[in-house]
Prior knowledge:
By secondary structure, the protein is mainly alpha-helical. The protein has two domains: 41-163, Tetratricopeptide repeat domain (Serine Threonine Protein Phosphatase 5, Tetratricopeptide repeat), CATH 1.25.40.10; 168-288, Alpha Horseshoe (Serine Threonine Protein Phosphatase 5, Tetratricopeptide repeat), CATH 1.25.40.10. 73% of the residues lie in helices and 0% in strands. It is built from 15 helices and no strands. The chain has helices at 8-36, 41-53, 57-70, 75-87, 91-104, 109-121, 125-138, 144-163, 168-186, 190-203, 208-220, 224-237, 242-252, 269-272, 280-288. The radius of gyration is 25 Å and the shape is globular.
Amino acid sequence: MARKTKNPKKQNAKKAQKQKKRQERIKKQVLSAKRVAHPDIEDKVDHALGFVERGDLKEGKKLLTKLKKKHRLHPHVLYGIGVLAAFTKEYDLAIQSFNKAIEIAPDLVEAHYNMGVAYQKQFIIPEMITAYRQVIKYGESGSYTVHHAQDMLSKLEQRMRDDEGISLDEYIKGSQFFEQGFKYMQSQDWEAAITEFKSAIKLTPNHPQSYGNMGICYMSTGKKQDALDAFDKAIELDPSYEPALINRKIAEGLTEGKSWDTKVKEIEYYKDYPLKEKSYIKEIVDSQGVLPEK
């Protein structure tokens, strides 16, 4: 009787699968240990945040820093650090901390909620929507956080439908097209970027940033008139949208058919300027003396 030989490929596949399952099991055990090994940590974080909420940021930071040294990967410690950062308006740091906490404890409702608030403060709406939806998913029905998240999303949805005629999901999809277009801009794939911005505009037609970025793409491919038209539309939607005002002035000095060969400066205008009561035009004038001509 012939001896049956084992298939080495199947053996390796089974071995890899067993190893993957073992690693996942170990990871779950580690994460579980991080969450339950120190049951008093949550109380200590709450104690520290009590100082933060009463305005004693120095003492709150001192206590949280001590906790971080001993328990730097505990989700509630990371959450507390995020809250402290939010109180000092360091929203990027706050979001980073909340994200780390959620990676370890996906059902940590407080982290999702405060991250939603941080995104809202920075006018980063798609991520805010996602965070508040997670609050509703993991939160206790009838709780303040769930009620506030539901109320916020309901009002935003109604506003979107009244102003844009779209749902929140359509808004998020449009934002995804915009982000992809921006990635193509960074790699100077101008035509691909234009395609993505047009897709974004189909879903979110009142989005000045899409028109403004599309104008830059047209400038970079020598399509002066298309660029001017795109900037005009952006300015029509938001007469105070400074990037379009500046870039339109540059486009006026270009020659049709001649590409604009300049490195594009990356900014998050609504987050970094109006919300902080800063002027983008003033910043350029202060740094360069005059507005750029071309």
